[in-house]
Design a protein that fits this description.
By secondary structure, this protein is an all-beta fold. The protein is built from no helices and 21 strands. It has strands at about 5-10, 15-20, 25-30, 30, 35, 50-55, 65-70, 95-100, 105, 110, 120-125, 130-135, 135-145, 145-150, 160, 165-170, 195-200, 220-225, 230, 240-245, 245-250. GO terms for molecular function: ATP binding; protein folding chaperone; protein-folding chaperone binding; transition metal ion binding; unfolded protein binding.
Length: about 250
Amino acid sequence: MAAQVGTALNAQACKLASFQGLRATNGRVQLNPSHVSFAVSSRRCVAVRAATAVAPKFTTLKPLGDRILVKIQQVEEKSMGGILLPSSAQTKPQGGEVVAVGEGKTVGDKKLEPSVKTGAQVVYSKYAGTEVEFNGEAHLLLKEDDVVGLLSTDDVKDLEPANDRVLIKVTEMESKTAGGVLLTDSAKEKPVIGTVVAAGPGGYGEDGERKALEVSKGNTVLYSKYAGNDFKGKDGTQYVVLRVSDILAVLS
């Protein structure tokens, strides 16, 4: 069995692309053959996830239940003009293409078919799923509920939120105090107010039926401070994708 499925780890230093919103940041992790240590640094990534390598003799990987298999999207290394980009300048989202889906799940007495279809381009939660090296390429096995939304472009403003999630354009915080003192980014409070740009179709209730969301496009909302996934659009606009349950109130 050990010869069939192993862990794909490089015992030397390896470079990883971690995503801050839609912008990749460069990191380096040193791997010791006897253990893996995690160093917290503003310039280095803080975690490493080992991918399970599937032996070449296995040609099919069928997810079970409500799980899906996503082929991880590769980070663009060059600009349209052919200029080699540093990791800090790469702007592809954390996502990929769905290449296989399970048979769905059962809620109550109702069987629910997968709402994510093969071929869909999806964005998923940052630490979701299990990485798998299959057919020589990086994949991710995750639950359908870990999908944040569908994204057919490379700009998060076009995201179609999944199920009970909403896409919110974050309201910019004041850059000055009431006395006119300029605030640094570290001194600013994390935003908790924004405008709903898009809303999902709703989550499923215990009866297996979709429940309409309590917010809609255009609503200004107050949400939990550290909820959801933060993203940055191509024009620098800040967005957050979160579940409707993380929204505290509608403002008017």
